[in-house]
Write a structure and sequence with these properties.
alpha+beta, Aminopeptidase, Glutaredoxin, 2 domains, seven-stranded mixed β-sheet, four-stranded mixed β-sheet, 7 helices, 13 strands, about 25% strand
Amino acid sequence: MNTEFINLTEENISNEHLCCIIRMKKLHPGVEAKRQWLKERLKEGHTFRKLNVKGTVFIEYAPLETAWVPISGENYYYIYCLWVVGEYRGKGYAKELIEYCIADAKEKGKSGICMLGAKKQKAWLSDQSFVKSYGFEIVDTTDTGYELLALSFDGTAPLFNQKAKACQIENQELTIYYDMQCPFIYQYIEVLKEYCATHDIPSSFIQINTLQEAKQLPCVFNNWALFYKGQFKTVNLLSVEQVKKILEKH
């Protein structure tokens, strides 16, 4: 078992791969957009820790105060991603990563750790049953089936912002809020923009560029959120075929 982990820093981020989309020789626009986003976040205490392999084995978390999510709470960490994929599964790497995060939080005197979950496990959200085995509990919910999970060290708990729980907007057209926190987002956005333009589908693609914008979002958010007919649908990145189903259903 390889036990060599690396934390990305301002010094090494230009030379290290970012796990989700492995690119070392040929630049990938989504990876480079994420790399630029991450460079700024590292200054804010953001942590990206990965196994030193060309694979997807990593955890990514940040102080909740500077995490780009519409969640309020004091002195918490927020976990964006915890992924172990392919041949690296079943070898204890997820355990190593979550326990590192917990130890880091306790060492820094944090009140706890939180992450986004759902009543039914979503494809683009980290495994909530796994973190629940470490004591994470549901501390807030939305009417759209999403949950805020937290591991509290002192009895406090974070909450979804009230605006995020509304999960409604006035705009009736297909509307997607997104940022560049995930390297897959760039390609999904480009494909959907082209599809909507080609088929004359009224649409709005709203890039979140600041922490303040993220904290004021009208729905739960991990880096992406989709609305149609004013109603929130999902935080899952969707293909053209999946978006077509939403449009046809309504």
